[in-house]
Amino acid sequence: MRIETFEMERMQSTWENIVDYDMSESGVRPLTLRELRGMGFDLDALLDEPLGYSQSNGTIPLRERIAAIYPGATIDHIEVTNGTSEANYLLALGQLRAGDAVAMQVPNYMQMWGVARSLGADVKTFRLRTEAGWEPDWEQFDRAVTPRTRLVYLSNPNNPTGSVLSAAAMRRIVDRCEQTGSWILSDEVYLGAEVTGTRTKSFWGMSDRVIVTSGLSKAYGMPGVRIGWLVGPVSVVADCWSQHDYITIGPNNLSDRIARVAVDAGNRESCYARTREILRRNLPIVREWVESFGGRLTWTEPIAGAIGLMKYAADSPSLAIAERVRLNQSTLIVPGVHVGIEGHLRIWLGGREEFLREGLRRIGTELRALFN
Ligand SMILES: Cc1ncc(COP(=O)(O)O)c(C=O)c1O
């Protein structure tokens, strides 16, 4: 199978550990095992854990805890995966065939764009409208979602806008997908990372056409644990498990143990509160920085997630700006073109205060030179 380069991930994996300031992230500064121990994680017991295979679709205790998050779900509705990205991939492998149509929201995390196309699907997009508070462009949506559409992919809360769909927009998406017989894949990995604490409503339970993916990487602040999951109808989950057997067999045993502690209801809330606290401290710093450009850099503040999507007033392509910032300032940012929105830059706001301030200062130096 041939697959096109996942431009954003490749740029990140090439440079994120080389530059001085990685401002390309999208989750909050990660938690440590020590912090997790404070939440009741038995670090000592981990030392005695045999380094064997884990249950390949997730241990029963972990799946029970994940199922408890999604009303009506049982352990048979859950597949535990190596990150949310593997959950998305397994779903695509299980459901998509050459010639299928797929619709996806843009801007977005562009994984499904590449995966679906590599499987021979015809991918159409519908845009979130900058000028309409990131409401979907319904004309494009209705054109993109037809009876040929096997799958509709969206991220909610959305990467990179940090926006959340309204209840009315969610209803409209579900109604349309029920008419067309399409699956809705709602990637909810940022759910719980809301700045105000008003929890994003999950698509789960709105229709039997809904599949949800999520994981520990963003709202929980534990990307390195590499645990994600998929929640869906039992037959869809069974198809994912079949794919899983061939790819990675299953998630790592130690990570499964860590995840059991993280997703426990009380700890989950503690992780979300930690994320919220980081965002609340950092947002005013970024807001002030954006304002210092006197209108040449503008944004709609994120409702959720540690990502600032900024529009710049210059003709340069976003990739050229990101390269300039990397080369001159040893600082990595995501060019809008890598998340489906040219003319924008995606800047991380989930780091420690001094890191954030210095990262912004470096990016600002290049932007000011560009604007002058
Ligand atoms: C919407 C979305 N889904 C999935 C992922 C990948 O998540 P994971 O680290 O859980 O594989 C990302 C990472 O940026 C993302 O933004």
Residue-averaged pLDDT, rounded?
Answer: 97
CATH topology of the largest domain: Aspartate Aminotransferase, domain 2
Small-molecule binders here are: pyridoxal-5'-phosphate
Shape verdict:
globular
Q: Which structural class is indicated by helix and strand composition?
A: alpha/beta
Give helix % range.
Answer: 40-55%
Rg result: 20 Å
Number of strands: 14
State the fourth-level CATH superfamily of the largest domain.
Answer: Type I PLP-dependent aspartate aminotransferase-like (Major domain)
Number of domains: 2
List unreliable stretches of 5+ residues.
none
Strand content: 15-25%
Q: Please give the largest β-sheet.
A: 8 strands, mixed
Instruction: Tell me the strand order in the biggest sheet.
Output: 2-9-8-7-6-3-4-5
Count of helix runs: 13
Architecture per CATH nomenclature, i.e. the level-2 architecture of the largest domain: 3-Layer(aba) Sandwich
Characterization of the model:
Helix content is 41%, strand content 17%. With 372 residues, it is an alpha/beta fold. It folds into two domains: 7-32 and 268-371, Aspartate Aminotransferase, domain 1; 48-264, Aspartate Aminotransferase, domain 2 (3-Layer(aba) Sandwich). It has an eight-stranded mixed β-sheet with strand order 2-9-8-7-6-3-4-5, with helices on both faces. It has a four-stranded antiparallel β-sheet with strand order 10-11-14-13. Strands 1-12 form a two-stranded parallel ribbon. Helix 8 (167-180) links the parallel strand 6 and strand 7 (183-187). Helix 5 packs parallel to helix 6. The longest helix has 27 residues, at 265-291. The radius of gyration is 20 Å and the shape is globular. The structure holds pyridoxal-5'-phosphate (PLP). The site of pyridoxal-5'-phosphate has 13 residues, from helix 5.
